[in-house]
Specification:
Elements lengths: L12 H40 L8 E5 L6 H6 L7 H4 L3 E4 L2 H6 L2 H11 L3 E3 L8 H10 L6 E5 L10 H8 L2 H24 L11 E4 L5 E3 L7 E3 L12 H16 L3 E5 L8 H11 L2 E3 L7 E3 L7 H17 L2 H5 L1
Parallel strand pairs: 2-3, 2-4, 4-8, 8-9
Antiparallel strand pairs: 1-5, 5-6, 7-10
């Protein structure tokens, strides 16, 4: 070593490794702080949004739809955020697609639960989800309600939706990453909208799902008040074999698990009352068809609006109780 040369050489190999390690640690800490700040901002933002959209103080909900994509299936199948916990203690599960999610009013159900002691949970899913995904959810989490109420759309007796298949085939860590990316992207679009109001407001097309009861909470609904009702076909022919087999498999699967199946039908352009009656007659399952002197109306031409949802739920529960299912559910 030359006289006067410092012992620590900044361009030495050891020094460069030390500086690289230090910068790596500092970068990791900075990223960690940034992620926590973003997560904190998202949580405060979500808490405020949930209160604005009617979710009770202290209640939890997950963003599940951003106007283009629904992510319920991934969140529920992999139990992200322990969303399935309340479903495990339910006496009655509602199964079906987005129509059953919009038809069963959580406030009416809660009032009925308080009086009767029957606990309800809405385990429907969007994208015309079917019986395959529902059965996989019931088996994976050992759900044992006394009764499952199935919205008897044709789509329920067919295969899983694309979203359902993706959830069934995916891994939990991948689902967690997808959900976080989905939710972060929505929050960023909302942040940008504040500065550029001409862009589409993501709050107006969002759907939140409440953990306590499984209900969809739509932030803004369409103003259209289209009338919807049951469709009755003239033909009363026997059911196609694919439906007979699908219904038989589902009923047998529920019976093996000690679960009773009850059918209903939510009014919509796709609600074929003749088909539902054929399913009930062929399978021996009971069918609750709700009728009303006043027409049901929808917010988009397909799904019940808030007023009709409350009316449908009240009429459904009235028949549910008259037929003795409240006693059987306890």
């Amino acid at each position: 070593m030359h006289k006067g040369q410092p012992s620590f050489i900044f361009n030495s190999r050891r020094a460069r490794r030390a500086w690289t390690l230090l910068l790596g640690v500092l970068s990791f800490l900075f990223a960690l702080i940034l992620v926590n700040l973003i997560a904190g901002w998202m949580q405060l933002s979500e808490d405020s949004l949930l209160r604005q959209n009617g979710v009770r103080a202290g209640g939890e909900a997950s963003l599940v739809y951003d106007g283009k994509r629904a992510i319920d299936q991934q969140i529920y199948y992999h139990n992200l955020g322990n969303v399935v916990e309340e479903a495990k203690s339910a006496d009655v599960l509602f199964l079906g697609n987005s129509r059953i999610l919009c038809a069963m009013d959580p406030g009416v159900l809660e009032s009925f639960s308080t009086e009767s002691g029957v606990r309800f949970y809405n385990l429907g899913f969007g994208y015309d989800e079917g019986s395959v995904f529902a059965m996989r959810m019931i088996d994976k989490y050992r759900l044992r309600p006394k009764i499952v109420v199935v919205n008897c759309d044709k789509s329920f007796w067919e295969n899983s939706s694309t979203a359902g298949k993706a959830a069934l085939a995916g891994r939990a860590w991948k689902a967690w990453v997808d959900v976080k990316e989905f939710q972060l992207a929505w929050h960023l679009r909302r942040f940008v909208h504040r500065w550029i109001p001409k862009l589409v407001d993501p709050e107006k097309i969002a759907i939140w799902r409440e953990h306590e009861n499984g209900a969809w909470n739509l932030s803004v609904r369409d103003d259209r008040q289209a009338t919807v009702s049951y469709v009755a076909t003239e033909s009363d022919d026997s059911l196609p074999s694919k439906y007979v087999k699908a219904v038989g498999r589902f009923r047998k699967a529920m019976e093996l698990r000690g679960i009773q199946t009850v059918l209903t039908l939510v009014p919509s352009p796709m609600a074929n009352a003749t088909f539902a009656k054929q399913i009930a007659r062929t399978s021996g399952m009971d069918l609750i068809l709700v009728s009303s002197e006043e027409a049901f109306t929808s917010f988009d031409g397909d799904h019940l609006n808030d007023e009709s949802s409350r009316k449908f739920t009240q009429l459904f529960l009235s028949q549910f109780e008259v037929k003795g299912y409240s006693e059987e559910s306890r």
